[in-house]
Fold this sequence. Notes:
There is one protein chain. By secondary structure, the chain is α/β, with parallel strands linked by helices. It has a single domain (11-231), classed as Spore Coat Polysaccharide Biosynthesis Protein SpsA, Chain A (Alpha-Beta Complex), CATH 3.90.550.10. It is built from eight helices and seven strands, in the order βαβαβαβαβαβααβα. It has helices spanning 24-36, 55-65, 80-90, 109-117, 134-151, 165-171, 180-190, 218-231; strands spanning 11-17, 42-49, 69-74, 95-100, 122-127, 160-164, 195-200. A seven-stranded mixed β-sheet has the order 3-2-1-4-6-5-7, sandwiched between helices. Strand 2 (42-49), helix 2 and strand 3 form a beta-alpha-beta unit. The longest helix is centred in the middle third of the chain and has 18 residues, at 134-151. The N and C termini lie far apart (54 Å).
Amino acid sequence: MIQKKQKTPLLAVVIFAMNEQDAINATINELLEFIDGLKIDWELILVDDGSHDNTGMIMDAWSDRDHRITSLHHETNMGIGAALKTGFKAARAELVVPLPADGQIPPHEIGTLMDALGHSDIVLASYEKRGDGILRSLLSMGFRTATRLIMGVDPSTHGFYLARSRLISELNPLSDTFMYNIELPVLALKAGKSVSTVTVRPRARKSGESKIFNTRRLGRVIGELVSLRIRHS
C-alpha cells in the first residue's frame, strides 16, 4: 500500500519543562485552544528535562491522545538549551517557537510573533514590565546589561522568539543552558540575518519558582556569557 506523504506543519511549539506538574496541563490546554484557532498545520513537542515529579507522565498522556503531540525525555536535567535542542531537532515544521511550561507567557503572544515575522529570519520578544519585585527586576536588568557589555550586541530577548527552522540548523547554537536563548540571536545578528523585535506581556508563574534568575545563579550566568563571547570572538 502506498503511504500518503505527511504534510509539513507550519508551526512547531516546543514546551520545555522540569518539575512543572502543577502548571503544565493548564499551559498545554491554553496553547491548544489558541493554535487550533489559527487554522494551520501544527505540531507540539514536549520535552521533559529530567523531572523528578509527574511532569513526564503528564506529557506522555498528552502524546498518547493526539498524533500531533510528541513527548521526549531527558533522563537527567541537562538544561534549557539542551531541552530546546532536543525539541528543535525533533520538529518538522517550517517555524519553531519555544514556550516555557510554567505559564508565564500567554500562548496568544505566539500570534504577536507570527504577525511580525514577514520576511524576517527570527522575531525576538522582550517583556513589558510586570511587577516582578525589585530583586528580580534588578537581576533581569543586570543580566541584560552584562549581555550588552560582554557580547557587544543587544539581542533584546527574554528567551521567547519565533525562528525559521533552517536558521537554527544553519547557526547551530551549542549552549545547553539558558544561554542558548542568547547565543541564537547573537549568532543571527553577527551573521547579518533579518531580525525583528516585538514586545509581549508576560504574567506571573502558575506555580514554582524561577530556575533562571536568582542570586545563586548570577555569578554562573556572567561566566557563561564570558565563555560564549570567547567561543564566538
